[in-house]
Specification:
Blueprint: H1 3-28, E1 37-47, E2 50-51, E3 60-61, E4 67-84, E5 89-91, H2 97-100, E6 102-105, E7 113-121, E8 124-133, H3 137-140, H4 148-156, E9 170-177, E10 183-189, H5 195-198, E11 205-217, E12 223-230, H6 233-236, E13 249-252, H7 255-264, E14 268-275
Parallel strand pairs: 1-12, 10-13
Antiparallel strand pairs: 1-2, 1-7, 3-4, 4-5, 4-6, 4-8, 4-9, 8-11, 9-10, 12-14
C-alpha cells in the first residue's frame, strides 16, 4: 500500500472516530434530558480552616488566650437552597424537616467528613448554596405531627428539649481553661418555643455561600460541594468571647448564646466543588 493511500485511510478513520466521540459527548449533555440528579454536600469541621477536629483531643487557643476543646460538636442544617447561573432557586424540601433537615455530628465524621446526599435535584448549573443553621420558626410551628421523623432523630441525637421548647440548633460541649482545658462547659443554642409569642430572640440563621466552581447537576454527574466550618469562630469570631462560670453552662437564647450564634454564621466557606 502506498503511503498516500495509508494516510488517506488513516485520516478517514480518525475523522469518523472524532465524529462518533463528538456525538457521544453531545448525547451525554443532551439538553432535552431534564432527568433530575443528585448533589452531595460534605461538611468538615476544623479550627482556622485546618480540618478534622478530634473530639476530646484537638485543643484551640482563642483570641483571648483561652484554651478549649470539644467533647460534643453538633449542629442542625436545614432549608438548603441552590441558585443557578440565571439566579433561579431550587429549594430542597423547604421548611420540611423530615426530608430537608440534617444533623451534623462530629462523632459521625468519616476521615473528618460528614456527608449529606440530596436526591431529586433539577438538572442545572449552580453557582450558590444557601442553608439554615437551625430550624426555622415556620417549620417548627407546623407542630410535632409535621416533623415526626426529624423530631425523633433530634431526640436520639440529644438535639431537642421538650417539644414546647423545641430544637437545639448548635450543641458545643467540652473543657476550657487558661493553661489547659480542665473545666467543663456546655453551650446549647436554640429557640425556646414560639419566639414571637415569648418575646425571645430567633436564633435561626441563613448562610449564603458562593461556589468557586459551578456545580453541574445532571443525571450522570453528581457534584460534591466541600464546605469547611471553622469552629475557631465560636470564641474568636466577630465578637471575641471568654468562657466563665457565668456562661459556661447555658441553654437557649440569652445574649451569650446570641453572640455565639452570630459568630458561628461566619464559620462556613466552600473549599471546592467536584463534578464527578
Amino acid at each position: 500500500m502506498k503511503i498516500s493511500q495509508f494516510l488517506s485511510l488513516f485520516f478517514i478513520a480518525f475523522t469518523l472516530f472524532s465524529f462518533v466521540a463528538c456525538e457521544s459527548s453531545r448525547d451525554d449533555e443532551n439538553p432535552q434530558d431534564t432527568t433530575p440528579g443528585k448533589l452531595q454536600i460534605k461538611f468538615e469541621n476544623g479550627f482556622n480552616n485546618v480540618g478534622d477536629i478530634v473530639l476530646n483531643q484537638t485543643v484551640q487557643t482563642s483570641s483571648n488566650g483561652q484554651k478549649h476543646n470539644f467533647s460534643a460538636l453538633k449542629y442542625v442544617i436545614s432549608n438548603i437552597t441552590l441558585t443557578d447561573e440565571n439566579g433561579n432557586e431550587f429549594k430542597y424540601n423547604e421548611n420540611n424537616p423530615d426530608k430537608g433537615a440534617f444533623i451534623i455530628d462530629q462523632a459521625d465524621a468519616v476521615a473528618g467528613i460528614i456527608y449529606l446526599n440530596l436526591d431529586g435535584v433539577p438538572k442545572n448549573n449552580y453557582k450558590k448554596i444557601r442553608f439554615g443553621l437551625g430550624v426555622s420558626q415556620k417549620a417548627y410551628l407546623l407542630g410535632q405531627d409535621g416533623q415526626a421523623e426529624f423530631w425523633t432523630k433530634a431526640k436520639q441525637k440529644g438535639m431537642s428539649w421538650s417539644w414546647a421548647a423545641g430544637y437545639v440548633f448548635v450543641k458545643l460541649e467540652g473543657k476550657y481553661g487558661n493553661d489547659a482545658p480542665s473545666k467543663e462547659f456546655m453551650n446549647h443554642t436554640g429557640n425556646m418555643g414560639n419566639t414571637a409569642a415569648n418575646n425571645t430572640p430567633d436564633l435561626y440563621r441563613e448562610i449564603t455561600l458562593n461556589l468557586p466552581t459551578t456545580a453541574r447537576v445532571t443525571a450522570k454527574i453528581r457534584p460534591s460541594v466541600h464546605i469547611l466550618a471553622d469552629l475557631n469562630q465560636f470564641l474568636s469570631g466577630d465578637k471575641a468571647l471568654t468562657l466563665t462560670t457565668a456562661n459556661d453552662m447555658l441553654m437557649g437564647s440569652n445574649q451569650h448564646l446570641v453572640d455565639i450564634t452570630n459568630n458561628l454564621t461566619k464559620m462556613f466557606k466552600v473549599d471546592h466543588v467536584h463534578n464527578d
